Amino acid sequence: MIRELSTLLYGVALALVLGIGSAVWATGHYPLFGELAINGWNANPGVGADSPDPYSQAYFARSGGLPLAAAEGVAFVRDADDDGDTLNARCIYAVEGDTPGARLWTLTVLSGGEPLQPPAEGTPVALHSRSILRFRSGDFDIRIAPLPQPGNWLYAGSSGPFALGLSLYDTSIGSDTGLTDLRMPSIKNLGCS
Amino acid sequence: MVRFIYATLVGIVGAAIVHLAIVLMLPQLSENDVWQQIEAKAAQNEPIRFDRNGVELSAARTLDPMFAVMACRYDLTNGVFSITAPPTGDFWSVAVFDDLGRIVFSANDRIVASENLDLVIALPLQMRFLQQASRPEFANAVLTEANRSDGFAVLRVFRPDETYEPVVRDFIDRVECASTPL
After folding, report:
1. At A87, which CATH number?
2. Which helix (H) or strand (E) covers residue B10, if one does?
């Protein structure tokens, strides 16, 4: 009798612990189903679709965030440089290249998943496609550094890990046919202090 | 031993059921989603701005800082919902969410035929009425069908820096959300 009861309790406890634990884990981070990865940048165009997968819905219900809808844009996130090392604000990075076709894009420094607050008025913690200098080819070179840089400068804090958010607005990337190569900027580490 | 392995198997199957139940029920049960936040802060058909320069909502923390974001909450039980806004000359986008956080419709200033926003949201039955007897006030509107009567429309306007603020503020002042009984 006691053996049967303990086996039953063990089975129920296992179901609850594993079930609740895995559900909390799966809905606690950004959904990766239907992920679109280009040159190290990751996005999930599915969150903006008419019927997103249940994990995306659960994630946004729990976190209270607001996804970009399909006709609005696609948000890419990246937290590592081209060598695969985590981005750190002590280092200087060069963000080079161009983005897929979009009416407008914004590049934002994310700290702990949220946009970084500028430490002083006018410190560039976010840039947009109309505010940057470009080469004759249309490509750009943005320097991420703790101190001001010539050309395009983005400030990511004085130290500590950070991520970059690149949001493309009015883009067809989510419904791309694959006929053209999608280009996303590369991130090179130019040295750390 | 056999009993133990059997209990483990039953536990794993049970865990899968518990996992699916929690994930599928979260949109209905969550008390932190954007709908709950907007419902607590704004009356029906009242435009509410909730980016960093507006009302503090926890949903605003992860929004793109280069956009002004506002929303209107609607309830279709007593009539169709319409949102109109003047042209800004720059990028804006609109997304309609229902109370479970699912996207009903989205568009931007290039997709709609005119530069100003004129959007009507109706339940399927109300849409039948509108199609049978079209109304002059909705002649140029984009008609969207929603399956749930509660929801909200989110409007994003490009606001990269402080100098855009007067234009954005003027735009937001002229956004009109209304409900029209049929």
Report:
1. 2.60.120.600
2. helix B2-29
